[in-house]
From TrEMBL:
Annotated protein name in UniProt: Uncharacterized protein
One Gene Ontology term from the biological process aspect of the record: vesicle-mediated transport
Domain of life the protein comes from: Eukaryota
Similarity comment text for this entry: Belongs to the STXBP/unc-18/SEC1 family.
Coiled-coil stretches noted in the UniProt entry, renumbered to this chain: none
TM helices/strands, residue ranges: none
Organism, scientific name: Vitrella brassicaformis
Pfam families tied to this protein: Sec1 (PF00995)
Amino acid sequence: MALNVQECQKNAVTKMLLLQVAPSGGMEDPLRGGGGGMSGWGGPSTEGVTWKIVIYDRFCQDVLAPLMKVGGLRRHGVTLHLPLHSERSAVPEVPSVYFVEPTPQNIQRIIADCQRNLYERYHLNFSSSIPRPLLETLAQGVLQANSVHQITRVVDRFLSFVSLSPSQFSLNLTNAYRTLHDATIQDHEIEAFIDRVVEGLFSVLATLGVVPVIRCPPNDAAEMVARKLEARLREFLSQRGSSASSIFASSSASLQRPVLI
């Protein structure tokens, strides 16, 4: 069973840029409780392409870099692509596509953008699952900014990794060896780092649509990652029902499962 991680991730990013429906299991419109339209609601367009602005943080910029060059972004209707934490001018007649990590700093910046009314609509895409407290902070912030009607959708994209080739990827985490082996690193720092590793691996599996057989050596960090990843998969599959089933449809339809070592 050949798995092309780069092609799968590129397809997922393309759907995001074309304002298509969320990946199965992603959240849509939790701030409004309804399905926002994907096209026909404004913003200049030509031949069915809605022109838009893409806003990303540093991590998601690294995710996009191997997948699409400027010409590829333009073909999908992207007129501007700008860093989230930069000074940006208002373009109130054009929709925006945010692609960022779900961090407190990013949430506050999105709220600030809504308060300034920078764009016509906001498609908010998070590279991994946004925690409930941050989602509530976002909801409260856009409500206070009187911008709820401008939030078209909020989506967990599960794209928290960088595809280097069809068969190689990186979780793009710095100082990994030091974090796991330095005796001066606190336990809570190691725990937080392992959680990021798990979320990155889960993103890879969700993008590929596979539930692997997990194998690891005992009694070290690898076992901690394996156990947490197994728990993450079980939780996702049990809580999200049919949505989770469809995101991992290729795995259930195949008699073969990849081995994650």
